[in-house]
Amino acid sequence: MIEDIGFIGRSDERKKALQAVEHGQNVLLVGRSGIGRKALLHSLRGEFEGYVLPAGTNKNALLGLARTIHEDVGLTISISLLPARTQKRAQRGEAIVWEDLNHPLTRIPQIYEVLAASLEGKDKRIFIESLEVAPQQAEFFAQLLGVAQVIACMDTVNRRNRVMKMLYKFQYRLDLRQMSLNDASDIATAWTKAHGVRFANDKTQAAFVRHVAQDSGGIPAVMLAMMQSAKATGEITPATVREFQPENARRYFDMTPFLIIVMVVFMAMRYASRGLSEIEAYMLSGMGSALMFGMMFLLRQLGRRRN
User: Fold this and answer.
1) Cβ contacts of 203 within 8 Å, gap of 6 or more
2) What pLDDT does residue 297 have?
3) Nearest to residue 42, comparing CAs of 195, 178, 151?
4) In contact, 175 and 33? CB cutoff 8 Å
5) Is the overall model pTM greater than 0.70, yes or no?
6) Run of H or E including 199
7) Please, which residues have CB within 8 angstroms of residue 288's CB and are 6 or more apart in sequence?
8) 281: Cβ contacts below 8 Å, ≥ 6 apart
9) Which residue(s) pair with 51 in the sheet?
10) Which among 170, 127, 174, 158 is positioned nearest to 10, based on CA atoms?
């Protein structure tokens, strides 16, 4: 989704997500990278009050959230964790500023425990940009799901066991798919018009819109990158329409058939050399076969990682 032109093609999904949040449900937004999960999350954040936990959550991000919560409703923290001077101030009923709490919160598990204790019973929302976290943090996310309403994003390729085990706590799941060709065309038309992208003529504009809609695969982030690139180049002409390609549009040559043929040749050489008692050829074919098996295994592993 491209926020500055509205949610073309996603109005139904956004409406359903809004209703789920209104009903107090934990909402999970699922989709591949670039599909618009975070855009929808921040759109919901604009409609409802809540705290945001950014993607790639680290200690600084957690401390930032803790500070926001402290300034809003106050942190619930064991007095034993406070410095002696701060303990005396707390016992006298004086206000505790963030600087008094920043230093005692040194470990990530400790911060999560304080966050969970502070949010319990407060009827607050947390918007989590990504559930792609380390297994230890997944356990703490599960704690937050028990004390606050959570709206979170998750990539479809996420297969972390501890993350998957807590998904049952989300009462509503919304799977975001690629944009249809018509919706993608409407987005490209609206964006190029809103941002003043120049075309040689109307026919060129139609060709460019069709090109973006088709070659982007319906992924909003890819569409945006293509259109921004086109805007930066000046006027689009019929000759330059197809110059704008998504970054992932590289063409790969499949080496598998070639490797299979080479392996078959080496195997044939191996048996032929045994029949002819050619020791050198036999050794060469054996080494070649082992090399081919190793290369095929490596290519298979690389293919799995890319997928």
Assistant:
1) 238
2) 66
3) 151
4) no
5) yes
6) none
7) 262, 263, 266, 269
8) 269, 272, 273
9) 126
10) 174
